[in-house]
């Protein structure tokens, strides 16, 4: 959605810096950095996003029983969505607690529950897949994954297809680049360099791409 892409740029949840690349935790040099945690700090942006989440989930997954967030960035959004939809909410931890009940899933989900998994961002999709494995191991049916933004990387599409899990996002890199060009955040050459990165993040030739 164009309006959400505009909001992400306006509040600087997304930075586009082809000439000063960011370094991801994996070591990959990236011309883009996305921090959707910031969306929770801006009430107008937050409302736009949560209402869009609810509309999308209602349209795609009308038989959903509960909303589940990924730790940590998906938790806040999942809580708000569940509240708006009057559904139970839970979240999946990144690792089991080393005390108490050693939970990986926090909150109550009935066996056989049909859930939608909430992410804030999809890059390769691997973190979502790990959560899905935990949920399925606990007899929870994952209807799909919904996130605010995706880089549209082939690896994420391949990962979700391999596990037969649909995923949808409120906006994506291609839409964001169109908005960024229209609003003069970047020029045509920068846009092409970012697309080249998207197509193969491990190939740093995008940095000198003319």
The overall average pLDDT, rounded, is: 93
Amino-to-carboxy terminus distance:
29 Å
Kindly provide the radius of gyration, computed on alpha-carbon positions and rounded to a whole number of angstroms.
18 Å
Number of helices: 7
User: Which spans have pLDDT < 50 for at least 5 consecutive residues?
Assistant: none
Beta content: 15-25%
- The arrangement of helices and strands along the chain is HEEEEHEHEEEEHEHEHH
Share of helix, binned: 25-40%
- Secondary-structure-based class equals alpha/beta
Shape: globular
| Total strand segments | 11
Major sheet details: 7 strands, mixed
Question: What attributes does this structure have?
Answer:
210 residues; alpha/beta; 40% helix
Report on the architecture of this protein.
The structure is a single chain. With 210 residues, the chain is of the alpha/beta class. It has 7 helices and 11 strands. The protein has helices spanning 2-10, 43-60, 73-85, 126-137, 154-162, 173-182, 188-199, and strands at residues 14-16, 22-23, 29-30, 32-34, 66-70, 89-92, 105-106, 114-118, 121-122, 141-150, 167-172. Strands 5, 6, 7, 8, 9, 10 and 11 form a 7-stranded mixed sheet that branches. Strands 1-4 form a two-stranded antiparallel ribbon. Strand 10 (141-150), helix 5 (154-162) and strand 11 form a beta-alpha-beta unit. Helix 1 (2-10) packs across helix 6. The mean pLDDT is 93.
């Amino acid at each position: 959605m164009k309006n959400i892409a505009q909001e992400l740029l306006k509040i600087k949840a997304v930075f586009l810096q082809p000439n000063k690349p960011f370094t991801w935790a994996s070591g990959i040099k990236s011309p883009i950095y996305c921090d959707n945690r910031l969306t929770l700090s801006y009430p107008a942006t937050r409302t736009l996003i949560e209402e869009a989440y609810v509309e999308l989930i209602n349209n795609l997954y009308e038989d959903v029983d509960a909303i589940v967030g990924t730790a940590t960035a998906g938790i806040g959004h999942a809580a708000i969505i569940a509240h708006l939809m009057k559904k139970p909410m839970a979240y999946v931890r990144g690792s089991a607690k080393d005390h108490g009940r050693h939970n990986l899933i926090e909150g109550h989900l009935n066996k056989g529950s049909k859930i939608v998994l909430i992410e804030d961002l999809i890059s390769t999709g691997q973190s979502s897949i790990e959560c899905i494995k935990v949920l399925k191991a606990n007899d929870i049916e994952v209807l799909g994954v919904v996130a605010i933004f995706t880089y549209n990387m082939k690896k994420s599409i391949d990962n979700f297809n391999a596990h037969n899990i649909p995923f949808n996002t409120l906006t994506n890199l291609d839409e964001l680049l169109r908005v960024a060009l229209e609003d003069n955040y970047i020029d045509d050459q920068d846009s092409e360099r970012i697309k080249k990165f998207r197509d193969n993040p491990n190939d740093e030739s995008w940095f000198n791409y003319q």
